[in-house]
């Protein structure tokens, strides 16, 4: 096994391969245990395998840790990782802790941890990367950094002071929303709330949209009402409506009153429909244009990075007004069809009138059958006056039809090795 020093924050996200080069997953954390007379010992890695499941890989099954990759023996226990008493995850639980320097140099926050293999083949913590308190009053200034050995610091346990989550949030900054949600749910409950409080509103909203509703409510209930309303403003209206529907009527109304009026109006509209209907599952913000709009204008709109891919696949053409509920729905123009016509072509001339809209009262099962029958990723949703009130995409229907625990369900509890 290689004997180079490895920093854990940089190791997180690295690919894990078996001896023949097949990718097994990616590193999410490093697990350590404390020792009385020496620095903490590394006992294994938490890796994410397909299905977004986090599992434990014993350090004894790791044959090489190099820049950008980890090589293992190929034997992995596929049971979902659950920390045992005495085990500490470096990224999830240790980074961000406050320590005091034993040489009298004051206090600092742990920003990274270096692990290294000793001459006996055992991995342990050899160095800490620390950031001291800033010395400038400028809000943009940061404190000086320094390195220290484990025996040169002492951990602080200050009553009433929460463990800093800033470094952990920085470590998670590149995670996809679904991966961030899985990672948050794997954290101890109090640590999960600390990280949620530190995350920007938009990032937390994205992560909540990927969580089961009970976990969404659990996090939102621990945030202040003003912060909760800000996060709800950043969520897709259909996801925000689903979340608010799990709350008491009093709290629901209170949070709606704190939300941005336009966002709250969309959510209130969705709450009027049954949860298992097209109206309850749709988004009220599809791309809507007039028949006189051009292909160039439509393509410019669907290029917006914040737009969900399923909603970017089609543009809905209606009579004015062009915000839901619109004027009468005229038809749909799919992204692929727009690519076949010159930029100046009018959308009204290339309408796909064969796509049948679904009624706002249609069941989720009925919508799923239509999407599957015509190989579509989204459908227009109309009211009794044939006005467009929203669009429903395939992911909206899947979220409803799949079991409630599909995000965390262990499809296979068998093991290919033992921990």
What do these coordinates show?
This protein has 419 residues and is an alpha+beta fold. The chain folds into four domains: 6-89, Roll (SH3 type barrels); 93-155, Thrombin, subunit H; 166-272, MgtE N-terminal domain-like (MgtE N-terminal fold), CATH 1.25.60.10; 288-401, CBS-domain (Roll). The chain is built from 16 helices and 19 strands. It has helices at residues 8-11, 90-94, 166-171, 177-186, 189-198, 201-208, 213-222, 225-234, 237-244, 249-258, 261-271, 278-281, 295-302, 335-339, 364-373, 394-401, and strands at residues 6-7, 15-17, 23-33, 41-49, 53-58, 62-66, 69-72, 87-89, 98-101, 107-117, 123-132, 145-148, 153-155, 288-289, 314-318, 329-334, 358-359, 378-382, 388-393. α4 (177-186) crosses α6 (201-208), α8 (225-234) packs across α10 and α9 (237-244) crosses α11 (261-271). The protein is elongated, with a radius of gyration of 26 Å. The model is unreliable at 158-162 and 410-417 (pLDDT under 50).
**Can you count the helices?**
16
Q: What structural class should be given to the helix and strand makeup?
A: alpha+beta
Q: According to CATH, what is the class of the largest domain?
A: Alpha Beta
Q: According to CATH, what is the topology of the largest domain?
A: CBS-domain
What's the structural domain tally?
4
Measure the end-to-end span: 20 Å
Assembly state? single chain
Helix content: 25-40%
Tally of strands = 19
**What percentage of the residues does DSSP assign to strands (E)?**
15-25%
CATH architecture of the largest domain: Roll
List segments where confidence is low: pLDDT < 50 over at least 5 consecutive residues.
158-162, 410-417
Largest sheet: 7 strands, mixed
InterPro entries: CBS_dom (IPR000644), CBS_dom_sf (IPR046342), Mg_transptr_MgtE_intracell_dom (IPR006668), MgtE_N_sf (IPR038076), MgtE_transporter (IPR006669), SH3_actinomycetes (IPR058838)
Domain CBS: 282-350, 351-413
Protein name: Magnesium transporter
Keywords: CBS domain
